[in-house]
Amino acid sequence: MTTNMHSSQAPWSTGLCDCFSNFNTCCLTCWCPCVTFGRVAEIIDKGSISCAASGSLYTLISLVTGLGCIYSCIYRSRMRDQLGLKGDSCQDCLTNSFCGPCALCQMYTEIQNRGYNMKRGWQGVVEENNQPKTKGPVAPTVEGGMTR
């Protein structure tokens, strides 16, 4: 796990305690943190592990050991490195250990704010990127002129 230590690290788009500003994400994370984590992990892993598999593993680790925060910490560090966000591994572990739900909300919102459709997952990202891009309305094709 490498940490991006460049001075060009970008700030997070939301603060850690801004989780309450997005009611839907806050409720999802409070009632089903495995779904929030699974969606985040699927995007970070670029679809190599599904939302369901990541969420299930997060739940299993949380139930058996009570240390789902460690698994989440690993993904927070990976996400920070991929997106060039401010922070370090120590902050990631402390944040996930003591403010786990807020950390998950912040991660989810950060990815969402960067244009990812979290409900569609990585497959949705791939499908959206494969769609032909148009630069506005396209004029209709005109057939040949009138003849007598």
Question: Helix-strand pattern, N to C?
Answer: HHHHHHH
What structural category do the secondary elements indicate? mainly alpha
List the uncertain runs. 1-6
Number of strands: 0
Compute the CA-based radius of gyration.
Answer: 20 Å
Tally of alpha and pi helices: 7
Helical coverage, percent range: 55-70%
What gross morphology would you assign?
elongated
Taken as a percent bin, the fraction of beta residues is under 5%
Largest sheet: none
Distance between the termini: 76 Å
Kindly report the average pLDDT value. 86
Write the layout of secondary structure elements.
Blueprint (H helix, E strand, L loop, with lengths): L22 H9 L1 H12 L6 H15 L2 H16 L5 H10 L1 H14 L7 H10 L18
Summarize the structure.
With 148 residues, this protein is mainly α.
Descriptive notes:
The chain is mostly helical. It has a domain at 28-113. 58% of the residues lie in helices and 0% in strands. The protein has seven helices and no strands. The protein has helices at residues 23-31, 33-44, 51-65, 68-83, 89-98, 100-113, 121-130. The longest helix has 16 residues, at 68-83. The radius of gyration is 20 Å and the shape is elongated. Mean pLDDT is 86; it is low at 1-6.
Please tag this protein with its features.
7 helices; 148 residues
